[in-house]
Specification:
Elements lengths: L4 E8 L3 H12 L4 H4 L2 E9 L15 E2 L3 H4 L4 E6 L7 H10 L3 E4 L2 H17 L4 E2 L11 H7 L5 E7 L2 H13 L3 H10 L8 H4 L2 H15 L9 E2 L7 H9 L2 E12 L2 E12 L11 E8 L3 E8 L3 H20 L23 E11 L4 H11 L4 E10 L2 E8 L2 E2 H12 L4 E10 L1
Parallel strand pairs: 1-2, 1-4, 2-3, 4-5, 5-6, 8-10, 10-17
Antiparallel strand pairs: 7-9, 7-11, 9-10, 11-12, 13-15, 13-16, 13-17, 14-15
GO biological process, one term: threonine biosynthetic process
Pathway: Amino-acid biosynthesis; L-threonine biosynthesis; L-threonine from L-aspartate: step 3/5; Amino-acid biosynthesis; L-methionine biosynthesis via de novo pathway; L-homoserine from L-aspartate: step 3/3
EC number: 1.1.1.3
């Protein structure tokens, strides 16, 4: 075999994902001539402290100077796995402006600055790939951009946060309350020391912004995504859901409707026969509907060192192939439409509402009357528990405009007979 070209790579960061990428590049070293037609070589690894030992990484590759990478013309691919907005944003933009291709796993950055960075990549004829920014090791962005490009996609929904899915699974299977399940998730390493981004839905919201932008060819940012977390879900809600033939999941939902894009993240009752209802523990899944493909689901591990490194590695190999065939920059921003994005008050949903009310005749009639005056129809009522002298009432509504339900809820909260609105959850 003739002497092969070397494609030189720089890693920005050597944390969990960065170490995983380094391992994979070395593990795949002998395969690269056949997969890429070139050798893939890690030239530099940018770290904060190059004197700190990194297990499994050659210390001679470590640098704490960005200039060692940006000024090295031999480095063709920059892999950003450091996370956060800055300095990652600056480094990626400078790399693209210098004609270097970039692979990133940074969902926060892509959700906020994706258009700017993709435009910079296009201006400089470079690749900017970010498969690992959504759903860890599950291939989803490339299928949306490539394999499903012949479809008019109308829905992308899924479980895209492993921490919250693990918590809800433990609550469902073992009867844990939220705080207990969160403590277990933290102990096992599924939850960060500060779990806010996960449990309040922000992490999933960023991923949904990225997927909606690609699926519907129209720019969606994190600020466009309505987010609601799982902190108010109780084991009692999950038990009620089971009795109704449903599971409760934190779902990201994006729909392309005739009146605009809906994009939101919130807990939802979903029928047990839906494929997403059986996705448990820290696994992720994304469900896609297109006019040609019909329904498709992508399932797997949504986080972790090697699953995320797998997605990063796939992008690196893709870029390396483009380098070999002189075709970098083939696909850039695909948001060629400018579709309106609907506010949450403009979206229709069904609702599960659990409340404590006075246990006396006429209470249900008053609640039904209040709902009716706000154009909210009742689909089902369950009343079987008493707490002290109060009745626990569960109402399931028909599909209703969010604003109408919000108005009805305000009225019900203000009624003398209502002692507590315990939970409100949307129903798929």
């Amino acid at each position: 075999m003739a002497e092969l070209n070397k494609v030189k790579v720089a890693l920005l960061g050597s944390g969990t994902v960065g170490t995983g990428v380094y391992k994979l590049i070395n593990r795949q070293r002998k395969e690269m001539p056949y997969k890429v037609g070139a050798d893939l070589v890690v030239e530099k690894v940018l770290v904060r402290d190059k004197n700190k030992k990194r297990e499994g990484i050659d210390s001679s590759l470590l640098t704490d100077q960005w200039e060692d990478i940006i000024l090295d013309d031999d480095i063709q691919i920059v892999v950003e796995v450091m996370g956060g907005i800055e300095p990652a944003h600056t480094y990626i933009k400078e790399a693209l402006q210098a004609g270097k291709n970039v692979v990133t796993a940074n969902k926060d950055l892509i959700a906020e600055y994706g258009k700017e960075l993709l435009d910079t990549a296009e201006e400089n004829g470079c690749d900017l790939l970010f498969e690992a920014s959504v759903a860890g090791g599950i291939p989803i962005l490339r299928p949306l951009k490539h394999c499903l490009a012949g479809n008019y996609l109308t829905e992308v929904m899924g479980i895209v946060n492993g921490t919250t899915n693990f918590i809800l699974t433990k609550m469902a299977e073992e009867g844990m309350e939220f705080k207990e399940a969160l403590a277990l998730a933290t102990e096992l390493g599924y939850a960060e020391a500060d779990p806010t981004a996960d449990i309040e839905g922000y992490d999933a919201g960023r991923k949904m912004a990225i997927m909606a932008s690609i699926a519907f060819n129209s720019r969606v940012t994190f600020d466009d995504v309505y987010t609601e977390g799982i902190t108010n879900i109780s084991s009692k809600d999950i038990q009620y859901a089971k009795e109704m033939g449903c599971a409760i999941k934190l779902l990201g939902v994006a729909r392309n409707t005739e009146t605009g894009i809906e994009v939101r993240v919130h807990p939802m009752l979903i029928p047990l026969d839906h494929p997403l209802a059986g996705v448990n523990d820290a696994f992720n899944a994304v469900f896609v509907h297109g006019d040609a493909v019909d329904d498709a689901m992508f399932y797997g591990r949504g986080a972790g060192e090697m699953p995320t490194a797998s997605a990063v590695m796939g992008d690196i190999i893709d870029v390396a192939r483009n380098i070999q065939f002189h075709c970098c920059g083939r696909i850039h921003c695909t948001c060629y439409k400018n579709l309106p994005i609907k506010k949450i008050t403009e979206i229709e949903s069904k609702y599960f509402m659990r409340m404590l009310v006075e246990d006396k005749p006429g209470v249900l009639a008053k609640i039904a009357d209040t709902l009716g005056r706000n154009n909210v129809s009742i689909a089902q009522v369950v009343q079987k528990n008493k707490i002290n002298d109060l009745a626990e009432l569960v109402v399931i509504t028909d599909s209703v405009l969010e604003q109408n339900f919000a108005d009805a809820l305000t009225s019900i909260k203000g009624m003398d007979i209502t002692k507590e609105i315990s939970t409100v959850i949307r129903v798929y």
